[in-house]
Amino acid sequence: MTRLDFPEDIFLLEEFQDEEFDSRYPCITICGGTGCRVNGSEGVAEAFRNELKEKGLQANVNFELKVTGCHGFCEQGPLVVIRPQRIMYTQVSVKDVPEIVGKTIIEGQIVDRLLYRNPQSNEKIEHEYEVPFYKFQHRVVLDLNGLIDPLEIDEYISAGGYEAVEKVLTEMTTSQVIDTLMESGLRGRGGAGFPTAVKWGLCQKQPGDKKYIICNADEGDPGAYMDRSIMEGNPHRVLEGMIIGAYAIGAQKGYVYIRNEYPLAVKHLRQAIEQAEEYGYLGKNILNSGFDLTVSIKLGSGAFVCGEETALIASIEGRIGEPRPRPPYPAESGLWGKPTNINNVKTWACVPIIINRGAEWFASVGTQSSKGTMIFSLVGNVCNTGLVEVPMGISLRELIFEIGGGIPNNKAFKAAQIGGPSGGCIPAEHLDVKIDYESLKSLGAIMGSGGLVIADEDVCMVDFARYFMAFTQQESCGKCVPCRVGTYAMLKTLEDICDGRGKPGDIEYLIELGEEIKKSSLCGLGQTAPNPILSTIQYFRDEYEAHIFKKTCPAKVCKGLITYSVDQEKCTGCMVCARNCAAEAINGEKNKPHIINPELCTRCGMCASVCKFEAILVT
Amino acid sequence: MHDNVIEIGQFLDRESEGEGSLITALENIQSRFHYLPPEALIMASEKLGVPLSQAYAVATFYQAFSLKPRGRHSVCVCMGTACHVRGSAHVLNRLETELGVKSGETTRDRFFSLNTVNCLGACALGPIILADNEYSGHMTPQKADMLIRRIQRNEERKL
């Protein structure tokens, strides 16, 4: 493929490909996201290739086969969707492939047993768009994820890709681009929700001809993985957003700072950059407009604090990821002292959509103050786990119970943890809250990067708070005292409470300390670190009190407060627990009820997980 | 050791951005040797023109780097929030008991290194273990045991 120098070349290419893309024959799309790969989708794709060949079918004559990005419904993977009808098969294994090829591709019939079964109504659902998980979503950023092969730039182009870049470079001034973003109401998707156009405008106005843009793909928030899925499934859209941003701001160099732990995303992004360079969307004199941009990848080395913009810049510069006080903001003095604009993956990915579909359209989705859609990773104790994209303003209840299908194993909903280690827990009484930046803040949570972890009745909220504090304490860079010492003091108190050493006054101490850390820490990490603790105290104070005053853990989680024993009635003496106990704390003869020695028991829970007779009691 | 020095030199020669290349260079060396030998820090400091103290600071600040040699097989338990609420602590606990080391340590025979990671981004399949670049989802203490045995058996077969 040769370089495209003029916009007319793209039109030719698009027309040519639009025809090719029009599917008159079945197109088999196999999810190739990390989740489905774990479940074996690569083997399934290989099996399809072999089976189709064996049946004498020809690619692009009788069928098309694509390994796409993440479809989102990771729980049911590997997912296979047959287009154009969008027949969805779940949990497909290699041995199912001959049947799918024979029945669906050749005969046009449906393989009933591989269809998704709605757990509530028990009915089987044929088409992807009828599955509740997808039905209530509004996929704007993730729209192409299940449709195109992320390793082929032509597929992105044939789906309308790079049209926005072309429009911006040939028809719009830099100020017009920023004005369009302003009208759209786009706010930063990295968590804080700062208006993107304001950030860009600030950077654009800075003097000097050397400026930088950075894509923050250091998705360190545990429980969130939408940035990974976007980069794996549609890396070109992120690049397209970056090209537009660089043009608007006047930057010639861009960096994508991406987590080391996402090898597949790195691979796809690397290939996307190469292809964009080859086509002339990156490099010198892009589309003959006189505008230059190169983009490089920088791998993060596993430090949560590097998601903070000044720490991220320090890391690209080759130093440890310590934040510095702002102002000056990166827009004034960022990477190597030059004006720098940093946005999250999702923010960049929204930009081409706004240019293509118009600011007005984007602003029509969502609420008064929060525009567009938001992607959540709905995970934890919920039936349909996966990535969901919904308009801002949807209620938490709809998200969890309609899209998510509720809580598995007939357990009760306890809390939704939103916004990761900087966020808070929302209890059942606030399930009807509308999800937007302001409403969540008023409940003590934050939008954050969109991690939404559902906790059922078996999750201990004190242990949950301790978990988050252990995380932020470990990830605190150590530069400022409130965060370094404060999070440690909070963690020790929480550990004491979980281990049964809680004292009266501990709760008040945690609140006081938490408020101080929020006020006095240098960066966002410390300023938000107490949120999970403060919000769990606010809504689940009774659990804290049970740990401190009654020395019990109501959810039966905290090891210092529980004991394991054997139900002498239910135990059949099968000896499975005794064989699996690493601490050798279980004694008993075959066919006679066993006994657990509390002195030796490490409360690892192994016996309960292997017992088939529910004979292990936790009290 | 001499070969290592040559190889480390080659990694460093590829970098051109001075200080800005420090982390990239150390990442490449870490992925080749599974740890950063002392020579790596000294040579990186000399060739990239950064103080040795900065190279050491970087090597100890970021989780991806290790100054101690790692075991032949790496077992990494995801401790992300989604994995946590589904019981990853039990899985880690079991592995610590089974291997006789704590997270972050290597068994005495240098066979296994046990580590934790904050999130692997495969939350829907939690609890997750990443063993030698292979993901295993929906882990339980029992399945974790089986995973360890499988790695041991595969190694024995090779011998």
Can you offer a commentary on this structure?
The complex is a heterodimer of chains A (about 625) and B (about 160). Chain A is an alpha/beta fold. Chain A is about 40% helix and about 15% strand. Chain A folds into five domains: about 20-135, Glutaredoxin (3-Layer(aba) Sandwich), CATH 3.40.30; about 155-360, 3-Layer(aba) Sandwich (Rossmann fold); about 375-455, Ubiquitin-like (UB roll); about 460-550, de novo design (two linked rop proteins); about 565-619, Alpha-Beta Plaits (2-Layer Sandwich). Chain A has a five-stranded mixed β-sheet with strand order 12-11-15-13-14, with helices on both faces. Chain A has a four-stranded mixed β-sheet with strand order 2-1-3-4, with helices on one face. Chain A starts with 6 loop residues before the first helix and ends with a strand. Chain B has a four-stranded mixed β-sheet with strand order 2-1-3-4, covered by helices on one side. By secondary structure, chain B is α+β, with helices and mostly antiparallel strands. Chain B folds into two domains: about 1-60, no CATH class; about 75-160, Glutaredoxin (3-Layer(aba) Sandwich). At the A-B interface, helix 2, strand 11, strand 15, helix 18 and helix 24 of A face helix 2, helix 4, helix 5 and helix 6 of B.
| Structural class by secondary-structure content of chain B | alpha+beta
Number of strands of chain A: 19
Annotated CATH homologous superfamily of the largest domain in chain A: NADH-ubiquinone oxidoreductase 51kDa subunit
Percent helix range of chain A: 40-55%
CATH superfamily of the largest domain in chain B: Glutaredoxin
Name some characteristics of this structure.
heterodimer; A: 619 residues; alpha/beta; Rossmann fold; Ubiquitin-like (UB roll); 5 domains; four-stranded mixed beta sheet; 40% helix; globular; B: Glutaredoxin; 2 domains; 7 helices; elongated
List the helices and strands and how they pair.
The complex is a heterodimer of chains A (619) and B (159).
Chain A lengths: L6 H15 L5 E5 L2 H5 L2 H14 L9 E5 L11 E4 L3 E3 L7 H10 L9 E2 L6 E2 L6 H4 L17 H6 L4 H9 L2 H11 L11 H10 L6 E6 L8 H8 L1 H15 L3 E7 L3 H17 L14 E7 L8 H8 L23 E5 H13 L1 H6 L8 E8 L5 E6 L4 H8 L9 E6 L5 E4 L9 H6 L8 E6 L4 H15 L5 H18 L7 H15 L3 H5 L2 H20 L13 E3 L9 H5 L5 E2 L7 E2 L9 H5 L5 E3 L1
Parallel strand pairs in A: 1-2, 7-8, 7-10, 8-9, 11-15
Antiparallel strand pairs in A: 1-3, 3-4, 5-6, 11-12, 13-14, 13-15, 16-19, 17-18
Helix pairs in contact in A: 7-11, 7-14, 8-9, 8-11, 10-12, 11-14, 18-19, 18-22, 19-20, 20-22
Chain B lengths: L1 H12 L8 H12 L4 H11 L3 H10 L11 E6 L2 H5 L2 H12 L12 E6 L11 E3 L2 E3 L4 H18 L1
Parallel strand pairs in B: 1-2
Antiparallel strand pairs in B: 1-3, 3-4
